[in-house]
Amino acid sequence: MITLYKAPPSWGLPSISPPCMKLETWLRIANIAYDIEIPKDFAKAPKGKVPFIDYEGKLIGDSTLIIEMLKEKEGIDPDRDLTSTEKAISLAFRRMLKENTYWGEVYIRINIEENWQLFKQTLTNLYFAGSSTPESEEFSQQVQKSISNQIYGQGIGRHSEKEICEIINADFQALSDYLAEKPFFMGDKPTTLDATAYGYIAHIILPPFKSMIIDRVSQFKNLCQYCQRMKQEFFHDYLLS
Can you give the pTM of this predicted structure? Predict the structure, then answer.
């Protein structure tokens, strides 16, 4: 049995972390059984972050590397029927979501003060039983400082909110255009791209944050319907809104 170490659930989502949700969705698409652990710290995490897994007694980090390893070790590949061109398109979208879209999402949570207060309370509720203490305050400050530095270092944090909105909304326009009326991104069957896309799209639509990005994404009816479809197909056991 695989043990999945992930950030805890909230907002009707399986995890407050898009990469964690991506990996868990992939495990469900691949029909691979797993247990869940919610670590209090990342001391044992191979890459210093979640998600990571315990596989045959070995700790393995990074959602992308985990998926590729499991494809090989378990002999299960949701992408096996894709053409080389489709695999290239899938990779490009997954890279976009991971290396660009993600940073717009964390910007919304961390750098917009109103949203940060909501996210800070979420962290307090999840990790400190809702009690604000010196320990919880220190933890929240470390989270905000660390991620803010990462956002700035990545580059998107150097832009204005309007510019960030333009950059990230272009990602979601591309996703909406490519999905069109298909049930899944690559056609009639879910693939690795769906695990990734669902993890990142749902994290824009469902959490109770506010931004120009969220306002625009919520207008893409096919993306909203896609999230509902993925929820019903793979996370019916969660109390999702």
Answer: 0.95
